[in-house]
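Troubleshooting log. The previous structure file for this entry was overwritten by mistake, so regenerating from the original sequence record. Sequence copied from the archived sheet and checked twice against the printout by T.R.
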Amino acid sequence: MANTRSAIKTARQSERRRHRNRAVRSKVRSTVKTARAALVEKTAAAAESVAEAIRVLDKAVTKGIVHKNTAARKKSRLMKQLAPR
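Regenerated output below.
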């Protein structure tokens, strides 16, 4: 347990950030999973779901929750699946 007042405050801030980061990370995973499912089923909304996943990934990068190279890799793989062969 934290002893000093500043350590107690830091613990509170860390806990809030942890909850926020979990929510964003969960949304990233959900949207990427939805996009992959739409791509596999070749639905008409596949392009829209990929665009949504890219938007969510970019937001997570700006918030510092996902590394930029990880997001770039995920976006690249989604676009690669979306492109016609």
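Residues 5-41 form the longest helix (37 residues). Archived copy saved in two places this time.
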